[in-house]
Amino acid sequence: MNKYNLGLFTAAMALPLSLQAQADGKQEVCSNRPNVVLIYADDLGFGDLSCYGARNVSTPNVDKLAANGLRFTQAHAVASTSTPSRYALLTGEYPFRKKGTDVAAGNAAMIISPEQYTVADAFKEAGYTTAAFGKWHLGLGAETGKQDWNAPIEPALADIGFDYSYIMAATADRVPCVFIENGAVANYDASAPIYVSYQKNFEGEPTGRENPELLYNLKHSHGHDMSIVNGIGRIGYMKGGGKALWKDENIADSITAHAVEFIKKNCEKPFFIYFATNDVHVPRFPHERFRGVSGMGLRGDAIAQFDWCVGEIVKVLEQQGLLENTLIIVSSDNGPVIDDGYDDGAEELLNGHDPMGGLRGGKYSTFEAGTRVPFIVHWPSRIDKPGVKDALVSQIDFLDVMANVAGRYNGKALSPDGSAASMAAWLGEDDKGRAYTIGMAANHTLSLCTYDWKYIEPKGGPVMVPWGPKIETGYSTEPQLYKKVAGDYNEKENVAKENPEVSGLLHILLNEVRR
Predict the structure, then answer these.
(1) What whole-number distance in Å separates Cα of residue 216 and Cα of residue 212?
(2) Residue 301 and residue 292 in contact, taking contact as beta carbons nearer than 8 Å
(3) In order along the chain (515 residues), what is the average pLDDT of each group of 10 residues?
(4) Strand partners for 197
(5) Is-contact 483 408, C-beta < 8 A?
(6) Would you say 422 and 142 are in contact if contact means Cβ atoms under 8 Å apart?
(7) What is the CA radius of gyration of the chain?
(8) CA dist., res. 368 & res. 409, Å (int)
(9) Among candidate residues 211, 329, 345, the one with its CA nearest the CA of residue 273
(10) DSSP summary character for residue 104
(11) Which residues lie below 8 Å from residue 60, measured CB to CB, with a gap of 6+?
């Protein structure tokens, strides 16, 4: 083993201790505690924002945050699919450690159990008021498929630290298509009781497969052919809902209005907001006022709608005199997908736009576009030097970094896998960031990135996503090692055979973390 590789291995294996020591020396408790707003997009790619080089769509509100804050080029979600990345972000635990963290059905039981410690718990203990808005996709209730959607659902978000919540049970392409406010269906319509099944349809209810003539808003390209709500086919079966059913074109307006109202009501004390948009997840069906603004059809217009949501949040913070001392983070749960089940013209209308931002793979994949995501940090009272940073950062640290921001850090990690020491990189004070990040693909293949190398474990699987999206999976029965060249990992040239010691050491490190 040569000296360089031994040093790489020793530094990586010592990471938990070295990070802890670094955090101990940098602990800071803000006497004037900042508000914190996480704006969490869905399926937004590394190249989907104009500040990241997007073409044909303008995102001025996000761009302004980036220009006056920090824009990261080596930031990673923990997984290349939604449910596991959200689980990791809120709990600080890698999703491969817990069963049931794969992409959840709309009637899944609560995946984060009430006894688990969450970022919302950390903020509540620090005296913050906490709220969640928009996409949830982490389950509700005690048992899968046993929820009574016509009564209060327990456990719900109040049981894991959120004082207020106005959420979608899963995501817009899955039933039930109603908002859940503080554990109960919002605008409940007693004349149309709600029933949900992911096993079989309800008698007499039309489906996209059997009644395509009823798909007056969007038709499916693959899957999404079960119950029809608002002229759009969904995954899963649903009956009832009545006046409580959402209209897809109003989802962004609804969650934004509720978040704005929450900020106005809670402007006298510190708050934490988890604001999770459905954009740009399918079905993409933005409000009419955004139609045609991108020239890329519904997907591009949904990006513009997302940017509007960001602008509305910033606007109310400015109006309430809160923007200066509010930490805003803008990111995404995983990488992009173009055709994810609806015939919305997304592929045909790209017109030179690259959602992957030049990276290989995409959503579901173990390649870089699966987990590398936009990551923007804006905190005027704390960040003195705005700019672009290539420090290696991971959303696995969100809980511990936020606890540090809130003054809850006491020298010990609050999550199983995160670290408060990453706060230095998140605020632009450390140019290197983490010693490594770990990502999980749809089939649980794990990858590990250091500042100079990327390793993908041998696991095997189909070369392309098999159910429709035109995305390389990155799965292989051979170990893969990619070296950073000109500031980026060269994922076209596998150099594992030429660098067996590096490949072997990163394999050992990955297995140590897994254990």
Answers:
(1) 9
(2) yes
(3) 44 43 38 91 98 97 98 98 98 97 98 98 97 98 98 98 98 98 98 98 98 98 98 98 98 98 97 98 98 97 98 98 98 98 98 97 98 98 97 98 94 94 97 97 98 97 96 98 92 97 98 95
(4) 237
(5) no
(6) no
(7) 22
(8) 32
(9) 329
(10) P
(11) 50, 307, 311
CA distances from 457 to 198, 367, 441, 479 (A): 33, 12, 11, 5
Contact by Cβ (8 Å): 311, 61: yes
Picking from 174, 168, 279, the residue whose alpha carbon sits closest to that of residue 234 is: 174
Q: Both tokens of residue 445?
A: 């293949």
φ/ψ of residue 326, rounded to 5? -115, 125
List domains and CATH numbers for the chain.
36-184+247-426 (3.40.720.10), 437-514 (no CATH)
Look at residue 115 in the predicted model and tell me its pLDDT. 97
Instruction: Say which DSSP state 96 is in.
Output: G
- Angle formed at CA 406 by CA 404 and CA 409, multiple of 5 degrees: 35
Half-sphere exposure of 429 (CA within 13 A, CB side): 11
Q: What is the pTM of this model?
A: 0.94
pLDDT at 487: 83
Q: What does DSSP say about strands 184-185 and 195-197: parallel, antiparallel, or unpaired?
A: unpaired
State how far the Cα of 88 lies from the Cα of 78, in Å rounded to an integer. Answer: 7
Query: Cα–Cα distance between 86 and 88 in angstroms, integer?
Result: 5
> Which amino acid belongs to residue 385?
K
Residue 237, token pair as written in the block: 């079966």
Residue 393 CA to residue 431 CA, distance in Å, equals 10
Does residue 314 contact residue 328 with C-beta atoms inside 8 Å? yes
Which helix (H) or strand (E) segment holds residue 69: the answer is none
Residues 405, 399: Cα–Cα separation, whole Å: 10
Question: For residues 107 and 174, what is the distance between their CA atoms, to the nearest angstrom?
Answer: 9
3-state SS string for 480-514: EEEEEECCEECCCCCCCCCCHHHHHHHHHHHHHHH
Q: How confident is the model over 74-112, as pLDDT tens digits?
A: 999 999 999 999 999 999 999 999 999 999 999 999 999
Owner of token pair 């302004």 = 64
Q: How far apart are CA 147 and CA 151, in angstroms?
A: 9
Backbone angles phi and psi of 23, in degrees to 5: -65, -40
